[in-house]
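Changelog-linked ticket: iron/sulfur cluster example.
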Amino acid sequence: MRLSPSQDQACPELSPSQVKQYQACPERWAKRKIDRIKVTDDSGDAAAIGTAVHGVLEAAGRAWVAAREVARPTVEQLHSALAAQALAPDLHDSAAEILATLQPDLDLSRCCLVEHEIALDLGEVKLAGYVDRIDHVDDHVYVIDYKTGQLPSTDLALDAQVGIYLVWARLTWPTAEITAVWDYLAHRTRRRVRWTPELDRYHRREVIATAAAMRGRWRVARPGQACAWCPYTGACSDYHRWLAEGLGPESAESASLSSLAAAYAAARELAKAADAQRKELGARLLAMLGEDKTRTDGTARVTRVRTTRHSYGPEAVLAVADATGDDACDVWRRAWPKPRPSSALAAYADAEGIGWILREQEQVRTSEHVRVGIE
Ligand code: SF4
């Protein structure tokens, strides 16, 4: 984990996707937003197709809300609306295919809002964004987001965008049942997450903690499957370490000695770097604590911990013998049949006496560090 020099940057209004991107990999977010590393993003084509499909559905939704005429557009109607999206010819077919796939499930008859602007004020965090579509059925509100990409492999209920929309919708319609519907158009699959008080609390906490981390410019790389779509792999040492460490048990069996040794060396370097970063962060947290023993900020509790270590090595035994005028052999003999330095000293004098002697002889070390708990 790394911190860039400034910790006090004001956090502007956030969008749900920014929160989500930061949670997925803070390092990727920082490379783009803080380091401003320019890259060629391969996701351009997929994004263009997604924008065009969204545009077609937005137009169909707006037409329904305005005139209530066509609740179930035909494939031909969708394709002719696609022509207005000025999509490059080589991408047109992919977008047309997605529209043809989703069409049998398209029903706008409950749609009441399209591309609706939202604003969510959580006190220390303000969020703004757009919801693709909102359906209203009796006392139930469905917050719908169109997805043209892959199905997620993680639990959708924990997705930041889902959470932010649920919290916002519940504040907007406090007595309604709220469900977020993630519509994976190319897969004809809808995933639903229903609002609950527990989920509401969870996402509020997560968003506030994420915004605090963004303000503090906390950076930590989260290498994983998402690296496959990251444009910064070339500039990301954590990604390369992750690849090296990813030499799992199956490949390890067939791996050569040199590749295992290289993976081991990379992991050892990572551990060293992590340890140095941990110490640096610990020192910063101690400085932030000032005179306080403990402080809580959002979901984080930081506590100052003092550790005192007594050295019970041979030097300590000699120091005790020296200070008491006894022979070192006497000190050792008293510990018999367990002649270890610590039992020798414990047997020789009371703890306070030993503590005093050891302190005098600089055989006692008191250090301060922090204990950090995240709820
Ligand atoms: S390559 Fe992976 S770990 Fe590195 S910044 Fe990108 S997503 Fe994060």
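Closing comment: Example verified and attached. The longest strand covers residues 126-137. Residues 25, 27-28, 31, 221-223, 226-227, 230, 232-233, 236, 238-239 surround iron/sulfur cluster (CB under 6 Å).
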